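Example S7 (structure tokens).
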């Protein structure tokens, strides 16, 4: 991967520095953090222990946050670190986790809920959105399979 792609020209972050950051971060996360979400795990990180010369704790944290902008965060922190090592050590991997990567299609149940939401809300203005989603989800489950499959909603 070229250093320019990660903003290394102006900040001094080279591929070796990125690998060192990832290794240091991976080494310094608490043992029990693989059970928590990314956000909870990140709160437990002591960035002063992760930092290495010539970068401060704040610079390391800022670089990690910029790297995370290229990845999805619905996993635990250790899982994300494994992915980050793979992504930032192989240039071709960046294409797979690019922020402009197309999103997966909306599940049929959610399409059904969204389609019926405004009509149901007009008929029942006192019902909360959460309740409407539950009601419409249950209604979707009672539909025959022919209507669920193929988008005949």
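Recovered sequence:
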């Amino acid at each position: 991967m070229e250093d320019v792609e990660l903003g290394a020209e102006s900040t001094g972050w080279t591929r070796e520095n990125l690998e060192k950051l990832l290794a240091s971060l991976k080494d310094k996360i608490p043992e029990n953090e693989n059970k928590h979400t990314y956000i909870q795990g990140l709160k437990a990180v002591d960035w002063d222990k992760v930092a290495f010369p010539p970068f401060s704790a704040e610079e390391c944290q800022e670089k990690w946050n910029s790297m995370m902008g290229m990845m999805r965060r619905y996993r635990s922190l250790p899982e994300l670190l494994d992915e980050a090592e793979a992504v930032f050590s192989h240039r071709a991997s960046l294409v797979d986790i690019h922020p402009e990567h197309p999103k997966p299609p909306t599940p049929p149940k959610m399409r059904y809920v969204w389609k019926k939401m405004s009509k149901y809300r007009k008929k029942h203005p006192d019902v909360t959105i959460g309740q409407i989603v539950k009601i419409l989800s249950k209604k979707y489950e009672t539909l025959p399979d022919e209507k669920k499959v193929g988008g005949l909603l």
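Notes on this example. Residues 1-9 have pLDDT under 50 and may be disordered.
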